[in-house]
Design a protein that fits this description.
Elements lengths: L5 H8 L4 E5 L3 H27 L11 E6 L5 H9 L8 E6 L6 H5 L2 H5 L5 E7 L7 H9 L1 E4 L5 H14 L3 E2 L1 H11 L3 H14 L5 E2 L1 H8 L7 H9 L3 H13 L4 H23 L4 H7 L7 H8 L4 H20 L5 H15 L3
Helix pairs in contact: 7-8, 8-9, 8-10, 9-10, 11-12, 11-13, 12-17, 13-15, 13-16, 16-17
Length: 349
Amino acid sequence: MKPSELSSALKRNGLDSLYLVVGEEDYFRDEAIATLRAWKEVDDAGKNADASGKEDSDQDDTFSCDLLYGDETDAQEILSRVQEVPFFSDHRLVILKWADKLSAKHGEALIPYFQALNESTTFVLSAGKLDGRTKWVQTLKSKATVIDCAPLFDNFCLGWIKQEAARLGLKLDQEAALQLKDIAAEGLYRARRELDKLVLFSPPGQIITGQDVAAVQGADTGASVFDLAGAIAAKNPTQALTIVEKNLESGEAPLRILGALLWQYRRMWKAKDSLSRGINESKVARLIGLSPYRQGEFFSLVNRFSLSHFGKAWQVFAKTDSSLKGGSSGSPQLVFHMLVFALCQTTQS
């Protein structure tokens, strides 16, 4: 099921004993987990009210939830949590984030539990990707309720933006919606932050324009992936690293920064390749879903790169992705230093 379908499923059937929340859109993964936690809290509160005849505000400690991380735990600890009998509630919620970082050995040790679940526990495993070739992942998928958190297709981003804006009480004109759609393609968390800022900085009832979106972007603590690509095109590693550092300091996940930059590079490469084959800019803009508001600056940036740069860049991105996930090359700051200098060195004016 999709994250948007989870609430309805919970209303119909209540909590299942095993969930797999999987997909590369971390906004959806966090949303699904938040929905499960909120349902558990409401369920516990309702049972407490039924037992006492009224709601008791001092009963918050009856909510039993354990949070684990795949790179910090092992099968023994996980099993001890999911098999433990809850003392302060009749049901326990155990969440394992970054399940993809759990070793194959520890994953295999969970198979018996997947086949004989503890009915007093809801076990939630969350990951961007899992190796479907491994036996433990195959067993997990066959036994769990799977919540698909794949990124939105480009043609659905605009609908998501309008839906979230309406939920927040924002009225967007078409230009604003298209700009936010471009931002959403970099990651829904980034787009959601822009919407939150529009709520803060825009008068109630005002129709939000493209200029308003551009204005609140300047209020961000970091800078956009477009600015980062521009610094690389200018062969200015100092500026590029400053942008990366600001985003890291503001709480952006290293892999999210890398993913956003890779997304921008794919768009630029597709545009550059199309232009080299004689396709005009207007058609290219439609092909990649580019907002009219940003066409001028986007194609100006694309023209500063050569096609050969993109071929070399993919190798740099692959190495950086491996380093960030494996942690073998030091801190994220050091990994990004190597990325920025490598990209600047392969840039041709």
